[in-house]
Specification:
Helix content is 38%, strand content 17%. The chain is an alpha/beta fold. It is globular. The chain has a 7-stranded mixed beta sheet. The longest helix has 27 residues. Bound molecules: zinc ion. Zinc ion binds next to loops. The site of zinc ion (ZN) has 4 residues, from loops.
């Protein structure tokens, strides 16, 4: 394990081009914050991010990027590019919100509009920060200081179907030398950890309706099958590795109580640290569904929604990002921001630790990642990825919650935008200017990937179209 003593470098001691990057980002910062606030207010959920995607794409266009909209069959997916030839470096930006999390930018729970969506994962900051980094690189290219192509990927629907999966299947990441991204968190840290692989599927059970009292013997219950299935699944939990997660949600269980239920639908998600383990458990769940259908005497069918790969961590890339984080130093917070954070911690029953704006020490990659998955995992098996987390919420904040939404709409969240933009742009600058570094990263990627050929875990056909809420 690498032990790092943290010393922030003053702006003056930064190399000249990195000083320019800092200047460019600081010049764009008010606009980037405005973009983030707009996306925060739109709070559009997966695949319905029409306005959010538009404001980001428009800003890229105004800054001289060529924008291709509606890529990979998704109206809200786009690629903004600038420059030509190799190297080609991509930076990913998300912007989808989560249903039901509407929240004001205040330290106590209170919906902006009851029942509406909210940015409980901070993707409003994510999109704006990544775009800021792409713009800084573009300006250096324009000044003739960098050669190659910079691409900003507007990647929708991370929270549901995984928009990047469809973009990956369409081959949109194939010619990249490296791809970068960041994510909101409660700390600043280079991306040295993987994520869980997952598979998402539904099982449809089909029985036969009959009057529940007059002639139940003529009916066959789809709900019986579903109950046998969940029982089997819950027994299975004892015999899977601790790294496995199994979640399910009952989507349909008949319509009325006086009819033997004809239809039942259950949505299941299986995760594990590596996709081999995930697939193993998936095969077991299929057998359980088969057995459940047999016991109840009903028909059943599977509907694949999507699956995500675990992240392939590139050590060399994580180290490079860490070096840049050390150069940038910590985020400093005002007393008002620390008070805001502590009020949130009080309201969510967490220790009153305030905010952690320091750069976390480099952590060696652990065998099992913390729980959670991302569609960046798929990108990481196509091209090397370099990632980071930036503080956007108080220490220990429950994620996908109102507290994340609250901070994302005020200065605590705003500070992460310029920070992430600098960290990503500094790292991209190093990659554009250092061919040897790019080669080392590529070599590590090829070695770790081995003979694996990427194949998206998706049903055939175009992405599902989701109507705006
Ligand atoms: Zn997220």
């Amino acid at each position: 394990m690498l032990v790092v003593t943290y010393t922030a470098t003053s702006a003056q001691s930064l190399p000249k081009d990195k000083q320019s990057i800092t200047g460019i980002i600081e010049r764009h910062e008010p606009q980037l914050i405005k973009l983030s606030d707009q996306v925060w207010e739109f709070a559009e959920t997966a695949l319905a991010e029409l306005k959010s995607s538009k404001v980001l794409a428009d800003y890229a266009e105004q800054n001289g990027f060529k924008v291709e909209k509606g890529v990979a069959g998704m109206p809200t997916a786009f690629i903004a590019s600038y420059g030509s030839g190799k190297p080609i470096i991509g930076v990913l930006g998300e912007f989808d919100a989560l249903p039901g999390l509407s929240q004001k930018a205040q330290p106590t729970k209170g919906a902006l509009k009851e029942g509406d969506a909210g940015h409980g994962c901070g993707h409003n900051l994510f999109g704006a920060g990544s775009l800021g980094a792409a713009i800084a690189i573009k300006e250096l290219m324009h000044q003739g200081k960098l050669k190659g192509t910079i691409r900003f990927y507007g990647t929708p629907a991370e929270e549901t179907i995984g928009g990047k999966l469809y973009m990956a299947r369409a081959g949109l990441f194939n010619d990249l030398d490296v791809s970068l991204d960041w994510h909101p968190e409660d700390k600043i840290e280079t991306g040295s950890q993987s994520s869980q692989a997952l598979i998402d599927f539904k099982i449809h059970f089909k029985g036969k309706a009959a009057h529940a009292a007059f002639d139940p013997w003529n009916g066959v219950s789809a709900v019986d099958a579903m109950e046998f299935y969940t029982t089997g699944l819950n027994y299975l939990r004892e015999h899977v590795k601790p790294s496995v997660r199994i979640h399910y949600l009952i989507q349909k269980a008949g319509d009325v109580v006086n009819v033997v239920p004809e239809n039942a639908v259950i949505w299941t998600r299986v995760r594990d640290s590596k996709r081999e383990g995930m697939f193993e458990v998936y095969e077991r769940t299929k057998k359980i569904a088969e057995g459940a259908a047999m016991m109840a005497g009903v028909e059943h069918s599977f509907e694949l929604i999507s699956g995500m790969y675990e992240i392939l961590v590139i050590q060399k890339g994580a180290e490079l990002m860490h070096k840049n984080l050390e150069q940038i130093g910590p985020i400093k917070y005002t007393d008002t921001e620390i008070e805001f954070a502590k009020s949130i911690q009080k309201a969510t029953g967490k220790a009153l630790l305030g905010l952690d704006g320091s750069v976390s020490p480099f952590r060696a990659t652990t065998e099992d990642p913390p729980g959670g998955s991302t569609d960046v995992g798929d990108v990481s098996w196509i091209t090397p990825v370099i990632r980071l987390s930036v503080t956007t919420a108080p220490k220990g904040t429950p994620w996908h919650s109102w507290a994340v939404v609250a901070c994302g709409g005020m200065s605590i969240g705003h500070k992460s935008i310029g920070y992430a933009a600098k960290a990503l742009a500094f790292t991209m600058y190093d990659l554009f200017t250092n061919e040897k570094l790019r080669k080392e990263i590529r070599d590590e990627f090829e070695k770790k990937k081995g003979s694996n050929k990427y194949k998206a875990i998706l049903p055939d056909g175009p992405p599902p179209v989701v109507k705006p809420l």
